[in-house]
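Quick illustration, no need to memorize.
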Amino acid sequence: MKDFFLNRQLERIEREANDDFRMILSFGAHCYPTKELHQLLRQLEQKMEKLSYYRRILFLTGGTTTLWIALNFLFQAFDFKAGIYLTLSLAPVSIIAFAVGTILVNRRYKSVKQAHQIERIIVEEIDRRRKDASIF
């Protein structure tokens, strides 16, 4: 059991150490070669696009709650029992899906939430290197 907790901690540390964006936030971009900084900028842009896409889907999922409630009122007006029960059960499902999805997306893209700061650090480092190279 003791080894289980130790291995879990080591895996967490290794996972965090492999996240280049967290490393840049912590230590700066001066440790990375220029080519890798350009690749990291492209990766950051792709991850930002994915995060935006997932947030849009989550917004639509959460927004369907109002649709289920509106349909519930409509089914109640027509006294359609199956529709009432269906929409009453789908409203909490969409709320739970929104909450769980938000937690998972925020956990997976934790470092991308500070994308503007990471991008600024990388761009400043690339500009600094460009200026240093122009001196020679």
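The chain has a mean pLDDT of 90.
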